[in-house]
């Protein structure tokens, strides 16, 4: 049993060695976005039997596989609408149960012919799956019924000599964050079921609160924050906490934010409607979430050119540029580019509501002749000579579209990515530098 370390400096070489083992019926212990996993070629019957022997897993109990968006349609039956919905949450810590197309070992499928698929947000697994160009098993590296492992030391100490003989390679990434195993979601039938709850809670429980005064609204916000704070696992408490607030002007959105702010020791919240966003430092430490700042964003109503300067586009935008606004939402960034001198703008989104709002906003801002609003996917944009691409897209989708952006921007063009978190910098830099 060979053990090697993996890090940013040597991961390409480690991936190469891992691929060699997988191609030779090998069994590899490898890190993931949740726990240490047990990897083998999911299409290789001999390798899968070795994995089942290692885990001492009961016959007929299914095992999920790692894949990516390029391969998922080859493995399972999934329609376009389902895939569109899933792209909002994956890559991430989810196992999705779907009807199998029987392209992997049947030992991995359930008795009803379904297969669990995983598209993780984890650089090393992403590269491995892409280079192997086949699905790889995605089960945790522990005996059936035993707890998963977050370090190689505890994992190896838990193995018998017979198990160690079955392992061809161990890849050590150090102590992993103590995330729960993935949330398992059964999408094989019309009724969606959560078969295993991971860090993210998908309960459909909803509550209604009624408020008659500003003070009541703030108290409701504080209570909701307290409920969220105490209701999640420690691993979730290290992740971004996002509140999405919708409503017409005057209904109390900023008042609600003030309630959350007061819970965090912030007493000077003001509406950012005309400056896009405000950042506030956290002044108290007796909260469970590891929060260092609060960001309050408001894109409700932007109409005049001066307001767009807060977006920072004028630093990169030169008169006469051709601009692509990807994931345009209400077309605010595309309109901003037009107001600041762009010759032409294409703003696209897949959402019907965003399309309608984009049309309306271009009319309100008198830029209909400059901003072309489209309801489509990136692959439907035939133009490929953009001087500037602005992408305000959810991180997981952004990473998937990296190559598409590169093929549509000039060699001397500029790509601006917005609405992202500092914690995602490494994954985004890696994806776009390799696109």
How does this structure look, described?
- The protein is of the alpha/beta class.
- It folds into 3 domains: 2-196, DHBP synthase (Alpha-Beta Complex); 214-297, no CATH class; 313-434, Vaccinia Virus protein VP39 (Rossmann fold, 3-Layer(aba) Sandwich), CATH 3.40.50.150.
- Helix content is 31%, strand content 18%.
- It has 15 helices and 18 strands.
- The strands form 4 sheets. Strands 7-4-6-5-10-11 form a 6-stranded mixed sheet.
- Strand 10 and strand 11 form a beta hairpin.
- The longest helix is centred in the middle third of the chain and has 17 residues, at 214-230.
- The two termini are 35 Å apart.
Radius of gyration, Cα only, in angstroms?
A: 24 Å
Q: What level of helicity do the residues show? A: 25-40%
- Architecture of the largest domain in CATH? Alpha-Beta Complex
Compute the average pLDDT: 82
Number of domains: 3
Largest sheet: 6 strands, mixed
Could you say which overall geometry the principal axes of the C-alpha atoms support? globular
CATH-defined topology of the largest domain:
DHBP synthase
* Low-pLDDT regions: 233-237
Task: Specify the structural class.
Answer: alpha/beta
Measured between the Cα atoms of the first and last residue, the distance is 35 Å
Share in β-strands: 15-25%
- In order across it, which strands form the biggest sheet? 7-4-6-5-10-11
According to CATH, what is the class of the largest domain?
Answer: Alpha Beta
């Amino acid at each position: 049993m060979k053990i090697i370390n993996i890090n940013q400096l040597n991961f390409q070489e480690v991936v190469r060695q891992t691929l060699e083992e997988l191609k030779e019926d090998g069994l590899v212990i490898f890190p993931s976005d949740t726990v240490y996993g047990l990897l083998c070629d999911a299409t290789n019957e001999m390798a899968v039997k070795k994995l089942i022997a290692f885990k001492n897993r009961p016959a007929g109990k299914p095992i999920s596989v790692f894949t990516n968006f390029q391969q998922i349609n080859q493995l399972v039956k999934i329609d376009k609408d389902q895939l569109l919905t899933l792209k909002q949450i994956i890559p991430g810590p989810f196992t999705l149960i779907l009807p199998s197309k029987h392209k992997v070992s049947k030992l991995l499928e359930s008795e009803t012919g379904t297969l669990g698929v995983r598209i993780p947000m984890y650089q090393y697994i992403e590269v491995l799956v892409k280079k192997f160009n086949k699905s790889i098993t995605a089960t945790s590296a522990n005996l059936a019924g035993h707890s998963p492992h977050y370090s190689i030391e505890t994992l190896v100490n838990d193995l018998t000599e017979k198990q160690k003989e079955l392992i061809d390679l161990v890849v050590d990434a150090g102590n992993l964050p103590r995330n729960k195993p993935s949330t398992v979601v059964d999408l094989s039938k019309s009724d969606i079921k959560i078969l295993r709850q991971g860090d993210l809670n998908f309960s459909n429980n909803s509550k209604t609160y009624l408020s008659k005064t500003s003070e009541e609204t703030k108290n409701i916000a504080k209570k909701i924050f307290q409920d969220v704070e105490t209701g999640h696992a420690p691993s979730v408490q290290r992740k971004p906490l996002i509140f999405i607030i919708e409503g017409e002007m005057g209904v109390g959105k900023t008042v609600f934010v003030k309630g959350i702010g007061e819970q965090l020791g912030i007493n000077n919240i003001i509406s950012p409607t005309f400056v896009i966003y405000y950042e506030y430092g956290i002044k108290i430490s007796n909260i469970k979430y590891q929060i260092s700042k609060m960001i309050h964003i408001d894109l409700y109503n932007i109409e005049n050119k001066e307001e767009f300067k807060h977006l920072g586009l004028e630093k990169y935008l030169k008169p006469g540029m051709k601009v692509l606004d990807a994931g345009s939402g209400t077309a605010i960034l595309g309109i901003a580019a037009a107001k600041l001198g762009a010759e032409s703008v294409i703003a696209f989104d897949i959402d019907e509501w965003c399309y309608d709002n984009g049309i309306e906003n271009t009319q309100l801002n008198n830029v209909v002749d400059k901003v072309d609003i489209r309801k489509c996917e990136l692959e439907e944009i035939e133009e490929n000579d953009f001087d500037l691409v602005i992408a305000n897209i959810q991180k997981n989708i952004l990473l998937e579209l990296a190559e598409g952006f590169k093929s549509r921007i000039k060699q001397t063009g500029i790509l601006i990515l917005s609405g992202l978190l500092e914690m995602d910098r490494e994954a985004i830099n890696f994806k776009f530098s390799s696109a």
